[in-house]
Design a protein that fits this description.
Shape: globular
Order of helices and strands: HEHEHEHEEHEHEHEHEEHHEH
Strand order of the largest sheet: 2-1-3-10-4-11
Helix content: 25-40%
Number of strands: 11
Radius of gyration: 23 Å
Largest sheet: 6 strands, mixed
Structural class: alpha/beta
Number of helices: 11
Strand content: 15-25%
């Protein structure tokens, strides 16, 4: 029977080379970030630190994937990563059956509430209600992805909101300074930007109140958001949201990863996160159309 035993061992060895094996992950949680600019400070500090916080409890380090265009982002998200970090306007286009809201960015007090989209107008430029339609060449939007910049163009109940022709778009959904610099230096008469960015420029004397007016365009919006795959157990999602909500606050039990993230977040103008609960995110979805802009990045 020795020959039979030897044959059995040989068959086992051969089977090990071709028998299907269960898929195994070589990394920890996959975190996909949409950041068109992704300069060195963000790519090397902010997003990796956020990935480490989201990977808390995993025995493997996170895989942080930074995408630069909306099309690239949507393609990578189709592979079902564990977490998504993106501007709120991009998040509205994601499948709600696959993604659950987790957290929204929080700024330092007193600007710790959600920002509005505002219209900054040069004195003497007139009082056009929608200059992007009447004077498009004189308007720059802070970016094409956040609701601060595009919310006024995405009213709820519209299947496909109109894409204004002839306007300009800033490059960065997390900082509207490039658009505001172009405005103040005379290239444009109007800018549609994040409330906090406009106020920062005014506080720094870059936009004087006698030369500029500011008008609200949108309700407060979440801005930067973190979503979690619904495949993750609800308890895990809740735990991650709780830890994110502690970032930047005086907590005694913060981990090294959480301290690193708190130190890095000012690079994107944030001090921490607030929980983003499902009913709250559903209200945002009801206020704004999700499928605009199709032809932008």
């Amino acid at each position: 029977m020795a020959w039979a035993a030897a044959l059995f061992v040989a068959l086992l060895a051969g089977a090990a080379t071709w028998w299907p094996r269960p898929a195994s992950r070589s990394t920890g949680p996959v975190v996909v970030v949409l950041d068109p600019v992704a300069d060195e400070r963000r790519a090397l500090t902010v997003w990796p630190a956020l990935g480490r916080v989201l990977a808390a409890g995993s025995t493997m380090p996170p895989e942080v994937v930074i995408t630069h265009t909306l099309a690239e982002f949507q393609g990578v998200v189709a592979a079902r990563p564990d977490f998504v970090v993106c501007p709120d306007g991009a998040a509205l286009g994601l499948d709600t059956t696959r993604w659950a809201p987790l957290a929204a960015g929080r700024r330092a007090a007193p600007r710790n509430l959600r920002p509005r989209g505002v219209l900054v107008s040069r004195a003497g430029s007139g009082d056009a209600a929608e200059p992007w339609l009447s004077e498009p060449a004189s308007v720059i939007f802070g970016d094409s992805l956040s609701l601060c910049a595009t919310g006024a163009l995405r009213p709820s109940g519209t299947a496909v909101a109109p894409m204004p022709v002839g306007v300009a778009w800033g490059p960065d959904p997390y900082d509207h300074a490039p658009a505001l610099h172009a405005l103040r230096l005379g290239r444009y008469e109007y800018a549609v930007v994040r409330q906090w960015d406009a106020e920062r420029f005014m506080a720094q004397g870059l936009l004087l109140t006698e030369d500029w007016s500011v008008r609200d365009l949108t309700v407060p919006v979440p801005d930067l958001v973190v979503l979690a795959a619904r495949d993750l157990p609800a308890a895990e999602r809740l735990a991650r949201g709780d830890r994110l909500a502690g970032i930047g606050r005086e907590l005694a039990d913060r981990t090294p990863a959480e301290r690193d993230l708190a130190a890095a977040l000012p690079v994107v103008g944030l001090a921490g996160f607030n929980l983003l609960v499902e009913p709250d995110f559903e209200l945002v979805q009801k206020n704004f159309a999700a499928d605009w802009p199709r032809s932008r990045r």
